[in-house]
Amino acid sequence: PPSLVIAVDGPAASGKGTVARALAARFGLPHMDTGMLYRAVALSLLRWGGDPDSEFAALRACDAIGSLIDDAELRSETVGGVASRISAYPAVRQALLERQQEFAGQPDGAVLDGRDIGTVIAPGATAKLFVTASPEVRAERRVAELQARGMPVHYPDVLLDIRARDERDSHRSAAPLKQAADALLLDTSMLDREAAVAEAIRLVEARL
Ligand code: C5P
Question: Which ranges constitute the DSSP H helices of the chain?
Answer without folding.
Answer: 16-27, 35-48, 55-61, 77-86, 90-104, 135-148, 155-171, 193-205
